[in-house]
Amino acid sequence: MIKLALSALISLMFASAAIAAPASDAAPKKQLVKKKRQAMHVAAADAGERVVKRVIKVNGKRKVVYQRVLAAAPAVPTMGDLAGLNRTSDPLDLKSNVALVLDQANSEVLFEKNSNIALPIASITKMMTGLVVVEARQDMDEVLTVTEEDVDREKFSSSRLKVGTQMTRANMLHIALMSSENRAASALGRNYPGGKPAFVEAMNAKARELGMTDTHYVDSSGLSKMNVASARDLAKLAMAAYQQPVLRQYSTDPKAVVETNNGRPMAFGTTNHLVASPDWAIGLQKTGFINEAGRCLMMQAVIEGRSVIMVFLDSKGKQSRTADAGRMRKWLEALKPAGLSGSSSYSTGM
Q1: Which strand (E) or helix (H) includes residue 173?
Q2: Is there a smaller number of Cβ atoms within 10 Å at the N or the C end of the chain?
Q3: Which listed residue (95, 113, 126, 236) is catalytic?
Q4: 109-113 and 346-348 strand pairing
């Protein structure tokens, strides 16, 4: 009986050893795979890449693979960041380094943050482009042609207007304001009497006329970081542009279809989704973005029966400028109308 028990015990020990053996063989393999993966991560980091896990199918079976891909480029500091404007706080926790809100009726400052500092304004430039074109009373039915001169050689931005595309000056102005079409803005400037140099001079002359002392333009599109203005100056531009019905209409259209020379209509949409929102009453607007400027927004709106001008410059995040407009609207809704006791304002700057 004892012999039988010993025999069974020995058999059980051998069986356990046999079962454990594969596990001990598998452990070094797992460690080896882990070391290879760690080495892959290190090599990728040295090359400015990262390792991503992907699940693929091979012959109908799922397989996990690891691939090296380019890492996202670090955020480029804006001119406002370099000037230290990002260290300015405000009670609304705005994501814009610069903000200004005026009562359109009496120019009373309701809110300001770094509003007197000149910064790149990107495509907000196009509002001055539109103002110069309209006030020059150029023929809006004249057909303009996109040429190689209109191709962006500075930022290499894309455009749906191929070289050779033809459309009326009115349509060029429409999509420049609504869709921020750079080649359209360039064509508008190039087809001004005296060409681009004369157009840029007319832009700067208009800025001086409006008292925009912190403003300077070098092109009609805003692609250059040398196009600069303060928020206070842009409020003056918004006031002047608002007097032109065509600028109000074109800048606040949510979408439009324009005709080109080949007879095929092209559909364009706005760069500011707020204009199509039933919660907003917007009478004029222009957005802008280049890396040096951050996200920018200039807008006229009616809030609680009060017409206001809003300017946001150097905002971080794709939707941050419109989110800041929303924060500002809630703040304004809590204020009493101008002229009543209890109305207030906020001011900060460097």
Answers
A1: helix 169-178
A2: N
A3: 126
A4: parallel
Residue 67: how many other CB atoms lie within 10 Å = 13
Q: Are 315 and 90 in contact (CB under 8 A)?
A: no
Rounded Cα distance, 228 and 88, in Å: 20
DSSP letters for 61-82: EEEEEEEEEEPPPPPPPPHHHH
User: Which residue out of 115, 180, 230, 320 is catalytically annotated?
Assistant: 180
Q: Angle at Cα 241 formed by Cα 239 and Cα 243, nearest 5°? A: 80
Q: Catalytic residue at 123?
A: yes
| DSSP classification of residue 338 | T
What domains sit in the chain, N to C, each tagged with a CATH number?
Answer: 36-74 (no CATH), 79-348 (3.40.710.10)
Residue 343 among the catalytic residues: no
pLDDT-derived band at 309, boundaries 50, 70, 90: very high
pLDDT digits (tens, 9 = 90+) for 199-247: 999 999 999 999 999 999 999 999 999 999 999 999 999 999 999 999 9
Q: How far apart are CA 258 and CA 264, in angstroms?
A: 9
CA distance 130 to 272: 17
What SS3 state is found at 150?
A: helix
